[in-house]
UniProtKB/TrEMBL annotation:
GO molecular function: DNA-directed RNA polymerase activity
Protein name: DNA-directed RNA polymerases I, II, and III subunit RPABC3
Cellular component annotations (GO), alphabetically ordered: RNA polymerase I complex; RNA polymerase II, core complex; RNA polymerase III complex
Record's keyword annotation contains Transmembrane: no
Name of the gene encoding the protein in the UniProt record: RPB8
Subcellular location: Nucleus
Organism: Apiotrichum porosum
């Protein structure tokens, strides 16, 4: 992927289990899913009332730097002050950018990478979306554009 692209990771997943260790919170479910194309493993906390998933469901997941479409990225870079304003208030506009194409959107931060698990070419990226956690495991090549400390949007659709 182009390093200037807003989408930094994208794949389709199949849910293998929901709350396998029991339900810890009323409205939150922890799903475990396997990638259909890239060989990735996903563990993700989701708001189960807003976006219910069941075992066997297939969904697309993307991580993006912003909700602005890629073609607007070069234009927005010209004026950094305007970029911050657009990113902050995009949710108020009629056209919400990438969020229009997805059913479930969260904003959070990549807080950790762990290269020690499951072989020499495997890594895990950890993100927090307001306390809803995500662990994305797989080849470091597929997570090369994900940077620790970076704010990201999680986008999901069935």
């Amino acid at each position: 992927m182009d390093e200037r692209s807003n989408i930094i990771f994208e794949d389709r997943f199949t849910v293998s289990s929901v709350d396998k260790d029991g339900k810890k919170f009323d409205r939150v479910s922890r799903i475990v899913a396997a990638s259909r194309d890239l060989g990735m493993e996903l563990t993700l906390d989701i708001h189960a009332e807003l976006y219910p998933l069941a075992e066997g469901d297939v969904f697309a997941l993307a991580l993006a730097r912003s909700l602005k479409p890629d073609e607007d990225a070069a234009e927005a870079d010209e004026d950094a002050g305007e970029t911050r304003k657009i990113k902050r208030e995009l949710w108020r506009a009629d056209d919400q950018g990438l969020a229009n194409d997805y059913d479930y959107v969260c904003h959070g931060k990549v807080y950790k990478f762990d290269d020690s698990a499951k072989g020499e070419n495997m890594t895990t990226a950890y993100c927090s979306f307001g306390g809803l956690l995500m662990a994305l495991r797989g080849s470091y090549r597929h997570l090369a554009n994900v940077i620790v400390g970076e704010n990201v949007f999680l986008l999901m659709r069935k």
